[in-house]
Design a protein that fits this description.
The chain is an all-alpha fold. The protein has five helices and no strands. It is elongated, with a radius of gyration of 15 Å.
């Protein structure tokens, strides 16, 4: 019986999820603001919230990407599957923060 990836185990999907979460977490709050205000300068106006988004999205992206990466191997092949699965796993916390920020603007 084949075991799945361990929780928090280091693999290519986890690294891809953490990198995606890091970059996306820094911009997750600013993107909805910049879209709503139609001003790209709003991307960096809330630096403290961007840092909090970064600190949340990196570990969550690591864990989710580490779980989804190895499971995507059967669809996309070994290396490509872990990268695609990790990136998609890293986007989950980023999208949650973006939806939260969008709802705070338009709520």
């Amino acid at each position: 019986m084949m075991r799945g990836p361990g929780l928090g185990e280091a693999n290519l999907g986890a690294v891809a999820g953490a990198v995606t979460g890091a970059i996306g977490g820094l911009l997750a709050v600013g993107i909805p603001l910049a879209i709503a205000g139609r001003d790209p300068a709003l991307l960096v106006i809330f630096r403290n919230l961007a840092l909090i988004g970064f600190l949340i999205c990196v570990p969550v992206g690591w864990f989710i990407g580490g779980q989804t990466g190895p499971r995507a191997i059967r669809w996309f092949g070994e290396r490509r599957g872990e990268l695609i699965g990790g990136i998609l796993g890293g986007l989950i916390p980023v999208l949650v923060i973006m939806v939260w920020a969008w709802r705070r603007i338009h709520g």
